[in-house]
């Protein structure tokens, strides 16, 4: 072997150690692409051999082994091949790195840093001498630029990878980024913020687009500003949204979808019940599979978010004005009860209403039908005609006219069982009290009432003797319980009968006295007749 000292120079890198002997060779790495219609995975490597005195080693056969290491000069070997090279009269030799093994496809230039190790036998044999390794700088990355040459109008873009394999994503600084991460099948585009786009915060098959957005859940999507999707299959879109429940969706602004499979479309809203939905502003869906619409719904209940209960509010329409003034205009319970009107939030019946309902005419009189146990519509409450409203049960049984007159097609029967009463006391002086009342004929002042001649009493006069039969409304108008007068009339009749019986006795006694008087008159006449006869006889004598 010729006695030469080795020197290795990298045109774009550092100088190899010069302690190696016995030859001196200067190697220059040009690393230029071999250009043709489609760039191959190769780059040129050119060396110049000189002896220790600086003289050219011309027209000699040399052998090279080139190895590319990942991350460090002694790191994982990702490429290796050997070359037989011939120096020319100037001591120069040229080889194409990658031409022997069919390219450099095993080197992922964009994912890490790489070092090129050179081993050489100046005699062309297998006594290779390690000349050291140096970092491959910018020139071979022209190979990576081959991908950019494929980004043309109307051309499809296909980048391949394998989940769980490939290089880890390097730590990203804050700022605009466009990232395709094959290791997790994830895509990022926008403004990276606060470590959101590092491996630990990137979910498999996830997508994040925008500023300060994070999609850490598997299959998750985060789009917009400061929106975060942390759970599997979760979606956060808009501004300041959080989707932390598996399969949850938060779209809009300042929403928190924390329940499993819950959905929010709106602003300042939250879901606590699994499978719940909130659409609107300032809403909170608490019960399992519940739906809340509107604005600032009532939230005073505490349902189990995981278990369905009959008293859950499964549908609400909120009409509140703020967090401290929440209200519902419609509430439907899981048991089927419906609350209509402002804040009927705990309906106790199938329909529980606050306020008035209206049933309109639509070809037939307005009203409500009622089925019996056989589902026959025998009952009806509503308009009889335009001026009458009443109750129908296999016929009109009771109705009231627009003039205030009431009609009963049957008997009026009132509860009067002794067992239902207490403090029972008989009447006193009913006849005297009834006798103090005055009946009247009159007409109504209200022209909407029946204007025919009326018969009745004056409530104020009745109140003087029967206060229990008179009531006064909130406007001060008085009404008379005419039915309540009937017992007093009965007692009055009884009192009259008693007096009549007394009179009958007196009459009978008087008749006897009259008979006695007649007999006395006859006796007196007889006495008088006898006296007169004796007087006449005495005179004749």
From TrEMBL:
Leader sequence range is: 1-37
Q: Which Gene3D superfamilies match?
A: 2.60.40.4050, Serralysin-like metalloprotease, C-terminal, Winged helix-like DNA-binding domain superfamily/Winged helix DNA-binding domain
Instruction: From the UniProt record, give one GO term of the biological process aspect.
Output: protein autoprocessing
Q: Which GO terms describe its cellular component?
A: outer membrane
The residues covered by the Peptidase S74 domain are: 416-510
Q: Per the record's keyword annotation, is Signal included, yes or no?
A: yes
Q: Name one Pfam family in it.
A: YadA_head
Looking up InterPro entries in the UniProt record yields: Adhesin_Head_dom, MRF-like, S74_ICA, Serralysin-like_metalloprot_C, WH-like_DNA-bd_sf
Instruction: List keywords of the entry alphabetically.
Output: Signal
Q: Tell me a Gene Ontology molecular-function term this record carries.
A: sequence-specific DNA binding
Alphabetical list of PANTHER family matching this protein:
MYELIN REGULATORY FACTOR HOMOLOG 1, PTHR13029
What's this protein's name? Tail fiber domain-containing protein
- Organism in which the protein naturally occurs: Dyadobacter chenhuakuii
